[in-house]
Design brief:
Layout (H helix, E strand, L loop, with lengths): L9 E8 L4 H12 L4 E7 L5 E8 L5 H11 L2 E5 L3
Antiparallel strand pairs: 1-3, 1-4, 2-3
Helix pairs in contact: 1-2
The protein binds copper (II) ion (CU).
Length: 83
């Protein structure tokens, strides 16, 4: 059985600075979740460094929109792990 075509979800990753606790994670997750394409957000919190944020999307989301959502939450995107 081949089911790979049925799931077209993609994962986009960005590095976010300034996050220090679960509240920060919740804020970023909440803002990113407001984007219609976003289906899930996973944060690998790294206090004092760059936290890796993995975003599951139904369609590619422009980096600028991800950046805006992160900034809306009060944090900064240090970079994207993908081109
Ligand atoms: Cu916090």
């Amino acid at each position: 059985m081949k089911e790979e075509d049925e799931m077209s979800n993609e994962i986009q990753e960005v590095l976010v600075t300034g996050m220090t606790c679960a509240h920060c994670v919740a804020s970023v997750t909440e803002e990113l979740s407001e984007l219609p394409e976003v289906q899930g957000v996973t944060v690998d919190l790294r206090v004092g460094g760059e936290s890796r944020v993995s975003i599951v999307t139904s369609a590619p989301v422009d980096d600028d929109r991800i950046r805006s959502a992160v900034e809306e939450a009060g944090y900064a995107v240090a970079g994207s792990t993908a081109e």
